[in-house]
Amino acid sequence: MQAGKPILYSYFRSSCSWRVRIALALKGIDYETVPINLIKDGGQQFSKDFQALNPMKQVPTLKIDGITIHQSLAIIEYLEEMRPTPRLLPQDPKKRASVRMISDLIAGGIQPLQNLSVLKQVGEEMQLTWAQNAITCGFNALEQILQSTAGIYCVGDEVTMADLCLVPQVANAESSINKRLLVLEAFQVSHPCRQPDTPTELRA
Amino acid sequence: MQAGKPILYSYFRSSCSWRVRIALALKGIDYETVPINLIKDGGQQFSKDFQALNPMKQVPTLKIDGITIHQSLAIIEYLEEMRPTPRLLPQDPKKRASVRMISDLIAGGIQPLQNLSVLKQVGEEMQLTWAQNAITCGFNALEQILQSTAGIYCVGDEVTMADLCLVPQVANAESSINKRLLVLEAFQVSHPCRQPDTPTELRA
Questions:
Q1: Which of A71, B8, B51, B145 could form a disulfide with B104 if both were Cys (CB 3.0 to 4.6 A apart)?
Q2: ipTM of the complex
Q3: Could you give the domains of chain B?
């Protein structure tokens, strides 16, 4: 068991890292950031040291309570169990199902198809069409699902894990739920523009 | 609130549907299958009726307890909360984190990159290389992670949600954990070869 502050391996621009940064901010968990630049030096995630830590060569990874957790939703679920306040999953199991369904739709149905490493594989010619397909198809479905789940936020009137997935995914798009969430402090302090590894010219 | 048997919209060959079928079998939940053939009739998931049910046009979808849940892991988490026996998540939060990390790695890091609709988009020429890349990269990482989590099964000595993700993903591959799981009844009755919609020539 190691003591000390949790360490988040994060890239300011990574939407999956941003999800976890919002959770840490909402729950008031003090942590250290170790920046892993996915582009610099041919991708710092490919370094021997980082690969030993996370064989998927992805951010985020969180060291906390003596363990190392990969995968943003697994990290958020762990934080929810060990640091339950404020809750990011509703008390009602049916609403929890909605939150997880929306989170999985974004984390498994949209994000993986338009992330950096996949777009690289797709090749420059097809990249834009490919990403647009994934995003359009996913968000159309999401909009329909939100019609039956949303209140002020994605599921009812409290911020949940689903919102932590939504905002990073549509960071540059327009959506009324997204706008309401972006003004909350946790979404602001965790924003890609305000991270220790954000290049000066991109700071805001 | 509707009463009656849960209804699973499923395709025998779909690895995400298989995950849920294993959970239902392990928990002894009686259910009806509505087959959605992802290939026949240009893909039955694109029918107006099914799209109204699941805007993502994907299986599985489960109707249960008066609600409709999409996304296999969200479904399994709901079943775990409402029908907790036998448990598919360990009691120890750190082990639960391992289970969710492995499940998300497979459900978000491997499956989405090699499923039918993505391979169609990639085009015939690149399909094989593409799928092999996704699978090789994902399984290499998984093998490393399993070294620190596995007992008899993926996490310790009890069957967990992680195993429900593993078996469908490596159905045709060789792995000792996979072989041990495949002899368990729940993995057999839920197998693609033994579903109501399995074509006769593929039955076993």
A1: A71
A2: 0.83
A3: 7-85 (3.40.30.10), 93-189 (1.20.1050.10)
